[in-house]
Amino acid sequence: MSLYVTRLDKLKAEIGEENLHAFLSSFKCSAEPAAEQFLKRSAIRHDSESISRTHLALGQDATGADVINGFFTLAIKCLSVEKESVSKKTFKLMNVSDNIAQAYLLGQLAKADGVERGFGREMIKQAFHTFAKGKEMFGCRVVRLDCRDSLIDYYDSCGFTFIRKNLDKELNQMVAII
Ligand SMILES: CC(C)(COP(=O)(O)OP(=O)(O)OC[C@H]1O[C@@H](n2cnc3c(N)ncnc32)[C@H](O)[C@@H]1OP(=O)(O)O)[C@@H](O)C(=O)NCCC(=O)NCCS
Fold this sequence. Notes:
Elements: E1 4-7, H1 8-15, H2 17-24, H3 33-48, E2 53-60, E3 66-76, E4 79-80, H4 88-93, E5 100-101, E6 104-111, H5 119-138, E7 142-147, H6 152-157, E8 161-165, E9 172-177
Parallel strand pairs: 6-7
Antiparallel strand pairs: 1-2, 2-3, 3-6, 4-5, 7-9, 8-9
Helix pairs in contact: 1-2
Residues 29, 31-32, 35, 109-111, 117-121, 147-148, 150-151, 154 line the site of coenzyme A.
């Protein structure tokens, strides 16, 4: 499976904000409406305020028109870690200082309705490729994400480890070491 991924800011420079907005509006992800709404309502602003960077996996439909097959959003977000919540080895690799580890964030990940199984996993590989570049330039070995209970096993199979529930107990914090 080959992915063509472009950054939202690059596409905005090419086609302009209005056209980009219209293009993002076509994205449908029934499994996770919040992710769809993020792309439609917040991704451009988060990008222009440098809160995060959204990456779009593009394809073409039967008529040859560009479509968004999926997207992922990367950012930086530190993580509070207690010694007991991870193995000794992981704790050391996380460079924890005053109970805080600096971390890259896989903030959003979603594929469009109808896109083949395994596409999300390919997007995660691409995200890790970008994190590896960040690590090379700035250091930091930790990638974090927050997910629902139903996705813990999926992210576990992608190399993430559950650390704990977040404060409101709704989402689960998971980390991977790069
Ligand atoms: C998460 C995602 C990118 C994974 O894509 P993928 O690697 O191609 O894998 P699949 O779509 O086959 O999903 C893997 C498993 O997770 C489950 N899953 C995916 N999204 C789910 C969701 N929102 N809630 C519950 N389960 C979900 C799938 O049912 C599947 O389970 P199965 O293996 O028992 O059939 C994709 O399923 C997706 O876009 N989901 C909706 C958006 C989402 O939930 N993002 C994560 C927010 S933390």
